[in-house]
């Protein structure tokens, strides 16, 4: 997949991953025990993620949602319980985050 250009070398494995997709909608999904990333969105546009619960606290280095190089993304009503990074964002445009929280009560924001 890397040689064909579908994945880049720096993308970690994920339970659910979208790369260079448009009009992505992920809703009412429970992601448990991911070895690395639970949900990865890389280079996507017009993204809607709502009602997603991530539970990977017992897995070392588990990450919740990774949003990289995306345009116009809405993340809302999410609960993320992981051992490393609940939300990682890099080089995105137009990200709106509402009602996203960790198991420690930390409200997730775009900064």
The arrangement of helices and strands along the chain is: EEEEEEEE
Q: What gap, in angstroms, lies between the N and C termini? A: 32 Å
Mean residue pLDDT:
92
| Alpha-beta content class | mainly beta
| β-strand number | 8
Please specify the SSE layout and strand pairing:
Layout: E1 14-19, E2 22-32, E3 37-42, E4 45-56, E5 63-68, E6 71-82, E7 87-90, E8 93-102
Parallel strand pairs: 1-3, 2-4, 3-5, 4-6, 5-7, 6-8
Can you describe what's shown?
The protein is an all-beta fold and 111 residues long. The protein is built from no helices and eight strands. It has a four-stranded parallel β-sheet with strand order 1-3-5-7, with no helix packed on it. The radius of gyration is 13 Å and the shape is globular. The termini are far apart. The mean pLDDT is 92.
Main features:
mainly beta, 4-stranded parallel beta sheet, 8 strands
In short:
With 111 residues, the protein is mainly β. Helices cover 0% and strands 60% of the residues. It contains no helices and eight strands.
């Amino acid at each position: 997949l890397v040689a064909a250009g579908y994945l880049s070398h720096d993308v970690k494995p994920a339970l659910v991953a979208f790369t260079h997709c448009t009009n992505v909608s992920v809703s009412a999904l429970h992601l448990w025990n991911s070895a690395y990333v639970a949900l990865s969105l890389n280079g996507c546009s017009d993204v809607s993620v709502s009602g997603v619960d991530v539970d990977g606290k017992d897995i070392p280095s588990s990450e919740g949602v990774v949003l990289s190089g995306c345009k116009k993304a809405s993340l809302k009503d999410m609960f993320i319980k992981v051992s490393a990074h609940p939300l990682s964002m890099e080089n995105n445009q137009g990200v709106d985050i509402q009602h996203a929280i960790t198991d420690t009560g930390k409200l997730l924001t775009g900064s």
